């Protein structure tokens, strides 16, 4: 049985990441992880005439490169699971139109990266597909346009604000072949601590990350030391500090492991003006499928847990004074060089 | 609409209140004093530039103190729109804050940025429909405020001049 405990899945049939890709924009290319990405675009528009088309292209490219890197063609992929941040997840659905792979669109805000990977793994693990594709992407300008102000509008952002990543990440999950194993996943609950400020997503999302991390340890009956690295999706500086404090308060011995955040890894705080750090579903997707998988293959770590965090708000909900409900999904990935 | 601090607290559960207290302790605060100084300097600089342009119009353009106002505003708006188009204005604004938001340049930026942003949705629905997205409230509440001030002004004037006779 795949279900373990209350809300976790153990993938006993060893689904693995057979191919992966990460595509980013120019600003991410200036950051410290530049060498880990497959494509860095010099043009934020990606040669398109709208921001939305640019985001669509990011996602398509990531999907295509991931399929190529697995040595497959798109006809061999049974299912495509993915999402983005735009209304009605248009970028992903339009990419699915181009790819013409049977498609399941999902929305988990910035947690979509691990939500789609968990679902793709579940599909493959259950024998419902030979290959499933999980793709997630976001674009800074489309997110600003939809959730905040026009991109060129001169508003001063507070120090708790985060910078949406322009990038997409993709993974081909397979039952066979060589690649890092996806061993388990924990699906998160929606947690709302009453934070209403959309410029303070880190503080809104931190409790959701903590809840899912605790649930993961409880369901699997393990301790943080089981992993060489536990990384949250896009809490950035503020949310990461709050999450660390909460975990300490709940007596979770995080000192057994290396605890980090993707939102603090992709940009250079010294040289790039990103306030608290990075956000967007492209953040955890590009960092995981670019940087983390490369490091796993290089042997830096053997077991990692990626906890992607998402803020489930809409521009209308926060204008109406609603608080920000948040969620986090965790997926564990292992690689010992012999998989 | 916006709830007061007390009302907000009442709606929150004890767990949420405890969490928000913890979060508040960790969150970095807006640097209000620094922001004020920067707004003073940048806003003052914009006004100084405007003043120089006005003086130039009076000295070399044959304008009077009264008529030089309009062409000065036009030039300031043009400068702001050019800076917005080149993607510079928002970067200056992150540093300057209210200094670049309050003067007429900020108003021009809010309209130009919305127009550029929504050009992709067409000239009518995109540019025409969305151009006032950010600037609209300023116009609406500016007009309402002017209306109220006008009424107050009228009442005071009646009292001052008309009451005695």
Strand count of chain A: 15
Counting helices, strands and paired strands, the structural category of chain A is: alpha/beta
Poorly predicted parts of chain A: none
Mean pLDDT of chain A: 96
E-strand count of chain B: 0
Radius of gyration of chain B: 22 Å
- Mass-distribution shape of chain B: extended
Class based on secondary structure composition and strand pairing of chain B: mainly alpha
Tally of separate helices of chain A = 9
Overall pLDDT level of chain B: 90
List low-confidence stretches of chain B.
Answer: none
- Following the backbone from N to C, one meets helices and strands of chain B in this order, namely HHHHHHHHH
User: Helix and strand string of chain A, N-terminal first?
Assistant: EEEHEHEHEHEHEEEHEHEEHEHE
The major pleated sheet of chain B works out as: none
Q: What can be said about the biggest beta sheet of chain A?
A: 7 strands, mixed
Strand content of chain A: 15-25%
Brief synopsis:
The complex is a heterodimer of chains A (339) and B (165). Chain A is an alpha/beta fold and 339 residues long. Chain A is built from 9 helices and 15 strands.
State the main characteristics.
heterodimer, A: 339 residues, alpha/beta, seven-stranded mixed beta sheet, six-stranded mixed beta sheet, B: 165 residues, mainly alpha
Describe it for me?
The complex is a heterodimer of chains A (339) and B (165). The longest helix of chain A is centred in the middle third of the chain and has 20 residues, at 201-220. In chain A, the strands form 3 sheets. Chain A has a 7-stranded mixed beta sheet, sandwiched between helices. A 6-stranded mixed beta sheet of chain A has the order 4-3-9-7-5-6, with helices on both faces. In chain A, strands 8-13 form a two-stranded parallel sheet. By secondary structure, chain A is of the alpha/beta class. Helices cover 33% and strands 23% of the residues of chain A. Chain A contains 9 helices and 15 strands. Chain A has helices at residues 26-29, 51-69, 90-99, 112-125, 140-147, 201-220, 236-249, 281-298, 315-319; strands spanning 3-4, 8-10, 16-24, 39-40, 79-83, 103-105, 131-138, 162-164, 167-174, 181-186, 229-232, 258-261, 277-279, 303-311, 326-334. With 165 residues, chain B is mainly alpha-helical. In chain B, 77% of the residues lie in helices and 0% in strands. Chain B has 9 helices and no strands. Chain B has helices at 5-11, 14-26, 32-60, 69-85, 89-96, 98-101, 104-117, 123-130, 136-162. The longest helix of chain B has 29 residues, at 32-60. Chain B is extended, with a radius of gyration of 22 Å. Classes of the chains: A alpha/beta (339), B mainly alpha (165). The interface between A and B is large, with 34 and 45 residues.
């Amino acid at each position: 049985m795949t279900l373990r405990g209350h809300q976790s899945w153990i993938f006993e049939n060893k689904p693995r990441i057979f191919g992966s890709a990460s595509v980013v924009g120019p600003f991410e290319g200036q950051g410290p992880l530049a060498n880990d990405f497959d494509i860095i675009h010099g043009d934020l528009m990606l040669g398109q005439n709208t921001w939305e088309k640019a985001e669509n292209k990011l996602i398509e490219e990531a999907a295509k490169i991931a399929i190529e890197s697995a040595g497959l063609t798109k006809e061999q992929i049974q299912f495509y699971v993915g999402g983005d941040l735009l209304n009605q997840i248009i970028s992903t659905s339009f990419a699915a139109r181009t790819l013409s792979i049977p498609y399941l669109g999902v929305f988990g805000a910035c947690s979509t990266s691990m939500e789609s990977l968990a679902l793709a793994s579940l599909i493959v693990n259950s024998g419902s597909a030979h290959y499933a594709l999980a793709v997630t992407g976001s674009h800074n300008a489309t997110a600003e346009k939809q959730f905040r102000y026009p991109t060129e509008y001169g508003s001063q952002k507070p120090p708790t604000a985060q910078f949406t990543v322009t990038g997409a990440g993709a993974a081909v999950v397979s039952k066979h072949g060589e690649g890092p194993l996806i061993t388990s996943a924990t699906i998160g609950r929606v947690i709302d601590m009453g934070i209403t400020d959309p410029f303070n997503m880190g503080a809104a999302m931190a409790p959701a990350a903590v809840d899912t991390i605790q649930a993961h340890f409880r369901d699997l009956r393990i301790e943080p030391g089981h992993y060489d690295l536990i990384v949250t999706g896009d809490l950035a500086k503020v949310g990461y500090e709050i999450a660390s404090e909460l975990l300490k308060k709940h007596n979770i011995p995080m000192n057994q492991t290396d605890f980090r955040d993707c939102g603090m890894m992709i940009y250079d705080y010294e040289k790039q003006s990103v306030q608290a750090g990075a956000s967007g579903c492209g953040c955890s997707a590009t960092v995981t499928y670019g940087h983390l998988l490369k490091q796993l293959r290089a042997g830096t770590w053997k077991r990692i847990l990626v906890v992607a965090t998402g803020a489930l708000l809409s521009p209308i909900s926060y204008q109406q004074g609603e608080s920000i409900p948040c969620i986090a999904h965790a997926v564990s990935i292992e690689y010992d060089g012999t998989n | 609409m916006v709830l007061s601090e007390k009302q907000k607290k009442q709606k929150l559960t004890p767990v949420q209140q405890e969490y928000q207290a913890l979060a508040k302790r960790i969150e970095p605060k807006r640097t209000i004093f620094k922001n004020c100084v920067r707004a003073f300097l940048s806003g003052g600089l914009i006004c100084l530039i405007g003043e120089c342009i006005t003086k130039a119009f009076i000295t070399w353009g044959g304008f009077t103190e009264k008529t030089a106002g309009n062409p000065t505003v036009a030039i300031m708006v043009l400068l702001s729109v050019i800076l917005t188009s080149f993607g510079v204005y928002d970067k200056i604004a992150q540093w300057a804050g209210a200094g670049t938001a309050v003067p007429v340049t900020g108003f021009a930026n809010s309209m130009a940025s919305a127009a550029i942003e929504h050009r992709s949705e067409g000239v009518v629905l995109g540019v025409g429909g969305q151009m006032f997205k950010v600037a609209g409230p300023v116009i609406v509440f500016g007009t309402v405020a002017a209306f109220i001030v006008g009424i107050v002004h009228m009442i005071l004037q009646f009292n001052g001049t008309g009451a005695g006779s």
